[in-house]
Write the structure tokens for this entry.
Amino acid sequence: MEEEEIQKAVAAYLRKKGFTNTELALQEEQNRVSFSSNSDHSVSRLENGPVRYSDGYSKLRLWAYSSLDLYKHELLRVLFPVYIHCFMDLVAGGHVHEARNFFHTFREDHESMHLRDLQKLEGILSPLHLEEIELSRSFRQNKFKIKMCEYSYDLLLQYLQKTQSFTMRGVINEHIDFEVSPGQPTSSSGDADFVTIEGRNNDLVRQINQKEIHWGVLEDSLEQHLERPVSDSEKAESANKELVLISVNSLIQKRPLDGGKQGIPVKMVKKDKLVNMVGKNVRSETSAVSVAPRVKPELTLPTTLVEVEQAILEDLRSRVQLNSLALPSISFYTFVNTCNRLNCSSISQDGSLVAGGFSDSSLKVVWDISKIGQLVKTSSLHGEKESAKNENLPATEEGKKPYTLFHGHSGPVYSATFSPFGEFLLSSSSDSTIRLWSTKLNTNLVCYKGHNYPVWDVQFSPVGHYFASSSHDRTARIWSMERIQPLRIMAGHLSDVDCVQWHANCNYIATGSSDKTVRLWDVQSGECVRIFIGHRSMILSLAMSPDGRYMASGDEDGTIMMWDLSSGRCVSPLVGHSSCVWTLAFSCEGTLLASGSADCTIKLWDVTASTRASRMESKSSSSNRLRLLKALPTKSTPVYTLQFSRRNLLFAAGALSKCS
Amino acid sequence: MSIVPKETIAVIAQSIGIANLSSDVALALAPDVEYRLREIMQEAIKCMRHSKRTVLTAEDVNSALSLRNVEPIYGFASGNPLRFKRAVGHKDLFYIDDRDVDFKEVIDAPLPKAPLDTAVVAHWLAIEGVQPAIPENAPVEAIVAPSENKKSENSKEDGLLVDLKLPVKHVLSRELQLYFDKITELTVTRPESILCKEALVSLAVDSGIHPLVPYFSYFIADEVARSLNDLPILFALMRVVRSLLQNPHIHIEPYLHQLMPSIITCVVAKRLGSKITDNHWELRDFSANLAASVCKRYGHVYHNLQSRLTKTLINAFLDPSKALTQHYGAIQGLAALGTSVVRLLVLPNLEPYLQLLHPEMQLEKQKNEMKRKEAWRVYGALLRAAGKCLYDRLKLFPGLLSPPRHPGWRINGRVATSHSNKRMSSTNLSSQQPPFKKVATDGPTGAMQPIAMTANLQGAPDGFPTRSSGTGVGQPSTSGQVPMKTTGGRQEKGGSVVPKGSAVLAQAWKEDLDAGRLLASLFQLFGEGVFSFIQPVEMSFFI
């Protein structure tokens, strides 16, 4: 009342004084104030009615679905972020019941793409939970990035303006970044690009992915040694060649390090020289020497053993060349009577040893496949000298059991890996330890404690001695056999690190995680150098091509993705498996990719076809797919492990499961 | 709101000793409980994936709990699925059926069998990309054609669609194999034993031996070809065939083509058995009946079965170069096929054939006693076949009973002396031989006397009543010897029959002259032997 009186008094005064302009201004102001208070009121009323979220969303959805086909798929992309954030807004506002209704009403739209996320979010029932779940936090803190063409963007804006839906406009403004590109909308098949990248620091990802990567193979690898005896028998000349190689290396080192450009001239130089000298360098194209000699000193390689080296060279010489026409032979090791307790298995390089990790925390190492019958051929035909050596070992319970039992872990064994030459075995368990076993002494040598949670995966480096582990504690760690503390800890994944794999040149490791990304880490610096985004569910398996250029990753849905390490982009998604891809393996020349799955098949994919195509037209990377060469079904045996021997014989292992 | 109702929270609170939980608290707790549950299940799924499984187990949940530093729930780690029971009186309240275990029982119980130990077996899943068809590989793989490589270049996953039919592997159970071995061994080694008879019964009634039929049919075909010299075995084999044919559970049609040649072999083979004393005639009769029964049963399925069979037989019958044994078999086979076959195929050829046969039967022309005997056998068979045919005709037309008498009478007139012959035959008959045997044996004697054929001229007229009253047997084959034995009672009823017979006489003539002529011609060819087939008709008429 007082205010009104004052206003009236002021107005009368102004009128009396003749300040008409001022009076008008004042009135205007008053009106605005009252309006704003009114609008405030209306907003709060709407706030109370959470219906506007579902209304707004369903209208948006209807509009998006009824838009022109050309732009439809782009507009549909907007729906998922809006949906998620509407839901989270509702929960945050305390309208749990409405949130749930809303969630279930529109859930089906997104199930095919984001099932795992939906499952996680479904449980959210109070604002507190929002804080707790990593996923929702990352949704809240980061923006989705959506690529759109100009026209679709305009369409969307027009719609939002026309319908006056403030809620939707707010949500979209707050949580979505549009990356508007001029021209035509992208093809609808480009789903891989689309996956509404949870914008976990998009810039950071971009930044990381621009880091330089030296994906070449090791310069002093045995593969190159192979050329020596093959090309010429005269030692003088080979010595000559080595000199040249050294000079090449020194040349490389002298060059100023500047990123990707420098790789090409080096390759050229080396190629020329090698072609001149040897004239038979088949893989010269791919064997661009990695310019990362800093890791080298660390690697006190066990290959110093001359006989082992000889054996490997022998293997390399008698290697079967595989390609799309010459498919490999596959020897399958079936674990029987496992009662669903087999968690993992591992096969040594030469296929003579098979290890199985069980959920009763035992580890069973089966000796000498050649002795357990049927496969005598293997040892005679493809058997490496390694196996012959193992046979002479004092097998303790040979008569009684066909395997050696390793006890030591106190929880299910989740992973096992043989060292490249088969003398060591590493196992990781849910008791958060990694154990090193000697296959010669049949005993536990070291127990590595460092992880705080179950260790999901452990992998020996291609040269042995070093190994990498990944754990539920969201880290991956690098270890060396002689130290009980990790050398590096790779932290950065937002969820469990489920699998780990070494790069061919031992300078990088790749990790796959439940946060649906694959990361590449520099072993030396411990930094993340690549983030590969594109999978839609938990990543279960990784494989690196022998030339170090490509990486394959398999996920829970059965999708396999092929990545180009240097660009960080997906070369081609491989669709074919219907269930979890447990294992992946490249053939020794990198021409074939084998994948083993829970759907009881092994599939062979042609790598060269897809990569060649991608080289020709790098733009349409998503449209070309790896060619499926062959699907080999097993007899109700999910495939747990695949391993190419150096002679390109493929070994596979799995547990026979009757109840499926 | 939450899928966990607040009542559940209250129940759980009660179970841990909080009696008076306010409903507000329960309501607030419920969403959090659901959230935690979901969280744990997410973790459990993770554990499941790392155990390389696609089925969630209680163990996974426990691992997930231990990841959260929560005490695992003990007692559910066993592989057996949990059994839930509905609580009485509640719609949706379940509890785990956890029955009390008596320690004593557990201790007393024998140790369970140790589970099989884990083992690794190796096989080739593929050899240079091609899956070998071995039992370790999935059956689909066998279907994959080797040429799949090339196809899959153009299109993916089409290789599995290639459909090749592989030879079906026939798996016999061990029991069946044993059974088969036993039976075959029995038939070959001890065909006359009681055990073998039991086996035949078993073959005729057993329902589970169908898988063995192809093996049996092969065995029979093989064994018949091999042991033509061994009469007992042949007989046993034919009995096996009969048993198989009798078995209602066997679907034998597909194997008839394999069985029939063996049967026919046993009917018309030149030599069956190695010794002279071997009674191969019996085997021929038996096999002939077998063949006929096959025709009868499966003739409608195989339209050409009977025609082929008769063709084979008639060829054997009409070929003069064939041995008499073969002729005999052929005649028996044709006779077994029925009277119409005989009437159509045998009777027209009867006269020329008998002309051929007669020299063989006579002592002066055929010195070889063996051959002569054979000839008489054939004669007997022919007689019987023709007689049966006649009998059948007569049965159709009972009134025809009289026509035989007229030729009979006529011939009677021709015959002068019959007394000696009659005596002779009666002595012969006392040796209890089958009728054709009798004919065969007394034939030669009769042949020596020109009038022997009509030996029973006087027996014919009064012979009918005799039989009907005296023996009543009614079997044409055995009745031949009866009249002589029961001479005593023949007069009493004879008188009453004859007038009746003559009463129908006129009508009979009208009804079928053909039958009359048939009988006449038969009588001309066979003589009095024919009359033995008429009596039963008389009898039926009489009754």
In short: The mean pLDDT of chain A is 74. Chain A touches chain B through 86 residues (CB under 8 Å). The first helix of chain A runs from residue 2 to 17. The radius of gyration of chain A is 31 Å.
